[in-house]
Design brief:
single chain, 439 residues, alpha+beta, Jelly Rolls, 2 domains, six-stranded antiparallel β-sheet, 49% helix
Length: 439
């Protein structure tokens, strides 16, 4: 009996073990494959490189697999890798091609799609088996017209052949050479069933929107504060500087909002955005805020101040124009170097003027103006972000995977301080009016 019992127990356990290890077919969602590589890569440009029969065996191999947790240094786009500048082609701008041959095994009834790379320097076209599917940028002219790179989805035509050649024709503008790791594809495209690719497309857009939503929120708050200033100005004629304060708030709001306009839309080219934000709005912001704080602290009317600020603003705008991306390779190096020198030193002079205003305000008002002084310092942290970065002060953090800059933190604090300052002024005027009425 004991032996029979042991045999029965062993047989029972064997049945349980067989049941536990039985393979059950399951399906976990729709399939998507990241096309990390190896890609065949070659600088230059030739129409035949889109042909699926072209022999690219002599081209170099490139892998765009990102390490875990990798993201770009701006808004936190995931899966980011350095470009061709960090892969032996530093200093090269112009055309380059990426080619990959894939074998697709999928039910013929399933629609397939390709997710375009979410980060590319600076524009691209995509070909599948020699057929142009689309891209980012306009390639009609001598050089492409560049807009922001946005998530894209391209339908893959289904044919009899399972072997498919995917080719990206990439063009990088010379202005991107400022980044030594720039060039080409930074985030791998993906191939898969159309439904899954569409889901990835929406997630990539979510990252893009999330990365610049702070700019829009801050721009709205700046405009609301400008309305508050204009309302206060109508009741308070004793305090100077309201006009310049309103101008500074509106110009800063436009400057911040234009970043989201560029990356969310396809209304502005790279050149247009640079002209609006860097050549026009940024110098005007520095000039307006300098005038605003000078008037707000009652530092007196001196003849040299408006002439100096006006001259620096115009000089800054003119020099910034000649350092624009549209002049790369056109102007002589000495002229470009002179323009960059003027830009640098006009900004330094604006820093010095702001420091003088801060020093004079402390001497004249002391602790009584602590809110105003805090507001001046906070807005200056944003306006002079370039100079602070040169000093080695950290400029960006990535809480929850989204980039938040030092400027955004300082502007958020500035908004709160200025709101309290203006509210306090409103309450003071209301109290003064009630007191005057009762008298």
């Amino acid at each position: 009996m004991p032996l029979l019992t042991m045999l029965l127990v062993a047989a029972f356990n064997s049945v349980l073990s067989s049941a536990a290890t039985a393979q059950v077919p399951i399906t976990l969602g729709q399939s998507v494959v990241d096309l990390h590589g190896p890609w065949k890569f070659h600088t230059g440009d030739a129409a035949i490189w889109a042909d699926p029969s072209f022999d690219d065996s002599t081209w170099e191999s490139v892998d765009v697999t990102a390490p875990p947790g990798a993201h770009d240094g701006d808004v936190g786009l995931t899966g980011y890798v350095p470009g061709w500048g960090a892969r032996g082609h530093r200093g090269y701008s112009g055309y380059a091609w990426y080619r990959m041959r894939v074998t697709i095994a999928a039910p013929t009834e399933d629609a397939l799609a390709l997710s375009g790379p979410a980060a590319v320097d600076s524009a691209y076209q995509v070909f599948v088996n020699g057929r142009l599917l689309g891209g980012c940028g306009q390639f009609a002219g001598k050089t492409p017209t560049v807009f922001s790179i946005q998530p894209r989805v391209f339908a893959i035509p289904r044919g009899q052949a399972t072997s498919t050649v995917i080719a990206f024709r990439v063009w990088m503008g010379p202005w991107d050479l400022e980044d030594p790791s720039a060039g080409g594809i930074h985030i791998a495209p993906a191939l898969g069933e159309a439904v899954s690719i569409d889901t990835r497309y929406q997630l990539q857009w979510l990252e893009t929107v999330r990365g610049y939503i702070v700019e829009v929120v801050e721009a709205i708050v700046f405009l609301l504060l400008a309305i508050m200033v204009c309302t206060l100005r109508a009741f308070d004629r004793s305090k100077p500087g309201y006009d310049w304060l309103c101008a500074g708030l509106v110009l800063t709001a436009l400057y911040r909002a234009n970043q989201a306009i560029f990356f969310w839309g396809q209304f502005e080219t790279v050149h247009t955005t640079e002209m609006i934000s860097i050549v026009l709005l940024l110098p005007l912001c520095l000039g307006a805020w300098t005038f605003a704080w000078r008037a707000w602290f009652h530092l007196g009317d001196t003849e040299w101040m408006p002439i100096t600020v006006g001259t620096l603003t115009l000089l800054y705008m003119g020099a910034q124009f000649f350092t624009g991306s549209w002049f790369y390779g056109v102007l002589s190096h000495p002229l470009v170097a002179l323009s960059q020198f003027i830009v640098t030193w006009t900004r330094v002079l604006f820093v010095l003027l702001t420091g003088i205003i801060l020093y004079q305000a402390i001497r004249k008002h002391g602790r009584a103006a602590w809110l105003e002084l805090a507001a001046l310092i906070l807005i200056s942290i944003g306006l002079f972000a370039r100079e602070l970065s040169v000093l080695g002060i950290r400029s960006i953090w990535f809480p929850y995977g989204t980039g938040v800059s030092r400027t955004q933190f300082s502007y958020a604090a500035f908004d709160a301080v200025l709101f309290v300052l203006l509210l306090r002024r409103f309450l003071f005027l209301a109290h003064s009016r009630r007191t005057g009425d009762s008298c």
